[in-house]
Amino acid sequence: MDAKELRDYLDLGQKDNLRDYLSKKDLEEIREIEDEIHFMEKKGNSWEQIYVELLEEYPKKIKPQKARKSIMDIKNSKRLVVGENEIRLLV
Fold it and tell me: CA distances (Å), 81 to each of 41, 84, 87, in order?
């Protein structure tokens, strides 16, 4: 899914950071795909080639799971005992 599809699927606003609302498992999968893209770029593949290879590897759209609590929910919680930068490290 692209960013717009993800926002619609997760019922998020345009200004919401997607990564703040995705589950840890989905974020790890996204990082793996981003690493693959970076590697293909370094090999000299065009964006069209990268797109075709990714479609072959991931033919079906994956529906992500929404995190139980978003980073914003945690930040706004009165129980927050770590700072925002520390939260980013936990994700």
Answer: 40, 10, 10
**Eight-class DSSP state of 9:** H
Between CA 14 and CA 85 the distance in angstroms is 23
86: its two tokens = 């520390």
**How many secondary structure helices (H) and strands (E) does the chain include?**
5, 0
Nearest Cα neighbor of 64 from 28, 17, 14 is 28
- Integer Cα distance of 36 and 8 in angstroms: 26
Query: How far is the CA of 20 from the CAs of 7, 36, 68, in angstroms?
Result: 12, 22, 11
pLDDT digits (tens, 9 = 90+) for 23-42: 888 888 889 989 999 999 99
Q: What is the pTM of this model?
A: 0.60
**Cα dist. 72→28, 59, 63 in Å?**
20, 32, 22
